């Protein structure tokens, strides 16, 4: 398996199946910016009422539903998923099968998002329950303070680049700000105090 991050903005994604798994896949793809079509025997689910841009087709799956799609999630019954996977592979469309990970081209990792940071754990479909437990462990260890720290690093980086002429000193300072003690300081003292201290370090380094 090759771990990748896909930019789905503006891409067309098909989800076959309107159960809990299919709805979760559809919302994930939609959140990533994809144009999502759901083909399902189930009627439009209430949680999709607010997502009018998600196309919900209540019908039996047909291979024509793959037309124009760049990515497919097969989340129906195993028999339907097998058909979807076979049709998609024949057309060169990337497909994920919820019932048989080996039938498709890719599997989805268990994901933790903290601001701009994405942490992913995958067992290649061999043990999804273990991947979920690893995700839960990461969620506990890396809370929302991590997102704040990343935001601080993003804000402070231009200041370092503008204030420090020496490239080696710039690199060393940015590396220091990205070290774990700063996360502990952020948790203990808060965002504003941590940013002020970073700015003090920059001014001292610029002298």
From TrEMBL:
<dbReference type="Pfam" id="PF10414">
    <property type="entry name" value="CysG_dimeriser"/>
</dbReference>
<keyword id="KW-0520">NAD</keyword>
<dbReference type="InterPro" id="IPR028281">
    <property type="entry name" value="Sirohaem_synthase_central"/>
</dbReference>
<feature type="domain" description="Sirohaem synthase dimerisation">
    <location>
        <begin position="145"/>
        <end position="201"/>
    </location>
</feature>
<keyword id="KW-0627">Porphyrin biosynthesis</keyword>
<comment type="pathway">
    <text>Porphyrin-containing compound metabolism; siroheme biosynthesis; sirohydrochlorin from precorrin-2: step 1/1.</text>
</comment>
<dbReference type="InterPro" id="IPR006367">
    <property type="entry name" value="Sirohaem_synthase_N"/>
</dbReference>
<protein>
    <recommendedName>
        <fullName>precorrin-2 dehydrogenase</fullName>
        <ecNumber>1.3.1.76</ecNumber>
    </recommendedName>
</protein>
<feature type="domain" description="Siroheme synthase central">
    <location>
        <begin position="114"/>
        <end position="140"/>
    </location>
</feature>
<dbReference type="InterPro" id="IPR036291">
    <property type="entry name" value="NAD(P)-bd_dom_sf"/>
</dbReference>
<dbReference type="GO" id="GO:0043115">
    <property type="term" value="F:precorrin-2 dehydrogenase activity"/>
</dbReference>
<dbReference type="InterPro" id="IPR042518">
    <property type="entry name" value="SirC_C"/>
</dbReference>
<dbReference type="GO" id="GO:0004325">
    <property type="term" value="F:ferrochelatase activity"/>
</dbReference>
<dbReference type="InterPro" id="IPR019478">
    <property type="entry name" value="Sirohaem_synthase_dimer_dom"/>
</dbReference>
<dbReference type="Pfam" id="PF13241">
    <property type="entry name" value="NAD_binding_7"/>
</dbReference>
<keyword id="KW-0560">Oxidoreductase</keyword>
<dbReference type="GO" id="GO:0019354">
    <property type="term" value="P:siroheme biosynthetic process"/>
</dbReference>
<dbReference type="InterPro" id="IPR028161">
    <property type="entry name" value="Met8-like"/>
</dbReference>
<dbReference type="Pfam" id="PF14824">
    <property type="entry name" value="Sirohm_synth_M"/>
</dbReference>
């Amino acid at each position: 398996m090759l771990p990748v991050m896909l930019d789905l903005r503006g891409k067309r994604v098909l989800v076959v199946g309107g159960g809990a798994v299919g709805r979760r896949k559809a919302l994930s793809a939609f959140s990533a910016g994809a144009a999502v079509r759901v083909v399902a025997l189930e009627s439009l689910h209430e949680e999709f009422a607010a997502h009018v841009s998600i196309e919900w087709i209540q019908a039996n799956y047909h291979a024509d539903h793959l037309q124009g799609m760049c990515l497919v999630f097969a989340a129906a019954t195993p028999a339907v998923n097998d058909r979807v996977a076979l049709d998609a592979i024949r057309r060169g469309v990337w497909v994920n099968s919820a019932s048989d990970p080996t039938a498709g081209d890719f599997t989805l990792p268990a994901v933790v998002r903290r601001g701009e940071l994405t942490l992913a754990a995958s067992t290649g479909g061999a043990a999804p329950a273990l991947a979920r437990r690893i995700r839960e462990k990461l969620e506990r260890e890396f809370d929302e303070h991590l997102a704040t720290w990343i935001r601080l690093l993003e804000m402070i980086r231009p200041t370092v680049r503008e204030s420090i002429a020496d490239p080696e000193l710039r690199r060393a300072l940015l590396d220091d700000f990205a070290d774990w003690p700063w996360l502990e300081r952020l948790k203990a003292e808060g965002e504003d105090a941590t940013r002020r201290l970073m700015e003090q370090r920059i001014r001292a380094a610029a002298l």
